[in-house]
């Protein structure tokens, strides 16, 4: 699993003042130079833009399929934000799920249906079903490369999704599961690709896609230091340069929640994730899809990131002092609600807990740590709920009524308001308030693709010889992130698929 506490210890927070890229809308290529007159500095069969998880998976697949492949990586190392993850992956019906969990007859159809329900009607169902169907084979493929799968767990629920669709599907390999351990996944694929003759050039940034008179992508313009070069791709170009994670300007244009994160919250994606692949594709007429959400979690507590850990007795209130969401729903679901409430009411939201909460299973604070946070000003404390209301500037009667309802309902073992399951225990003071802060692990949304990972124009027509996958592509994850292991299995699936489809072009 992605351990949020370990992640925060091992990965420095990226600055929200990220590099911006000016071109946001689709436009036509303005270079009138005929393709036949381009002076090529380098040449390969398949050119991959980005050496993160998606790019490295594509790189290995192309090499396995016998084509020449070159990866251009903007940073000095491979892996991108995948390195900062735990490397966990969702899949249904694998031998590991059968042997390590009680789910012996799970199906890819159920898995797809859960993802589709979480998409709330805003996703390409064909992409989602294709991903769910392909996921089990990727687990085996990675096992054959040397990863050892040691455990499988599940993600937290979403109140409106039928419980029968859930299962423990999140696969953890030996040496993985915690923040920063996605490096092992990346290095496993990278070493196998390099051994087959694949090439990767670091500190090299692709800046423009080159097309011929028919609109077919034939290469890229790239720069390394002060040097600019034209690189020819005989078979195709694969965009694997992540989403708009650290691009404030593109976020403002395309994703309200991600813009909120970049300007008021915390983003942990690598600084080189500035939407380059999306911008370049738009410049030659590509459509975009899937913008609107991001991978958000509570950076302080890591609440609701795994069904193995209970969400401790606490509730979340808005500026009015009222609950508004199921707090033990999967993390990005309830963080979407936090974003909406803070935007609509123009004020912060708070996690409310009590001294009685500190002894609960999974409590992220102890008496000692909460005392330290009170001293630091991260947590506010009061002997009674009215006093806490004053400290956080919410209506005293509302907050007292919210607490009274919580205590009455949880004493009866239920949550009639939001269908919460975990941590249904009355709260006894003194009381504490923690101001919610989002920890962002990347934006959702990218260029529009089909199941063959071809990049599409707004009319649905593929752009010849241009492919994309992972979070450089959009439309396969809905308006909130449905649970750990979704993004990484997507990078492997779509990276491999793009690599295979590009490699077979004649």
Automatic annotation (TrEMBL):
Pfam families (UniProt xref): FAD_binding_2 (PF00890), TAT_signal (PF10518)
InterPro entries named in the record: FAD-dep_OxRdtase_2_FAD-bd (IPR003953), FAD-oxidoreductase_2 (IPR050315), FAD/NAD-bd_sf (IPR036188), Succ_DH/fumarate_Rdtase_cat_sf (IPR027477), TAT_signal (IPR006311), TAT_signal_bac_arc (IPR019546)
Record keyword Oxidoreductase present: yes
One Gene Ontology molecular-function label: steroid dehydrogenase activity, acting on the CH-CH group of donors
Gene Ontology annotations of biological process type: steroid metabolic process
Swiss-Prot/TrEMBL keywords: FAD, Flavoprotein, Oxidoreductase
Cofactor(s) essential for the protein: FAD
Residues annotated as domain FAD-dependent oxidoreductase 2 FAD-binding: 45-487
Gene3D superfamilies linked: FAD/NAD(P)-binding domain, Succinate dehydrogenase/fumarate reductase flavoprotein, catalytic domain
SUPFAM superfamilies: FAD/NAD(P)-binding domain (SSF51905), Succinate dehydrogenase/fumarate reductase flavoprotein, catalytic domain (SSF56425)
PANTHER family cross-referenced by the UniProt entry: 3-OXOSTEROID 1-DEHYDROGENASE, FUMARATE REDUCTASE
NCBIfam families recorded: TAT_signal_seq
Name of the protein this chain belongs to: Flavocytochrome C
Gene source species: Youngiibacter fragilis 232.1
